Amino acid sequence: MPHASFLELLCPWPGCGFQIWFIDFRLEFVDRALYDQGVAAWESGAGLIGRCPGCGRRVLFNLNGKFRVDGDGDPAGPQER
Fold first, then answer.
1. Which of 24, 59, 72, 73 has the fewest CB atoms within 10 Å, measured from its CB?
2. Which tens digits make up the pLDDT trace of 12-26?
3. Is the separation of the CB atoms in 13 and 55 below 8 Å?
4. Is 15 within a domain?
């Protein structure tokens, strides 16, 4: 928990093409404090950051979809999504 399925399958990074159709962060396997923070971030809509299994680049996953995360940790702006 949390987990989600996505309508848009492809990784948001140009040229990757890896299909990410489901994500399960498995936070229940980490310490309780990190689990609570992760679940709160997911439920608030802020989302969680993970790596694409295809290209290895960072992706923000939230209830609205998948978005590229730049080197500074900030999600790409709306014009770049």
1. 72
2. 999 999 998 888 888
3. yes
4. yes
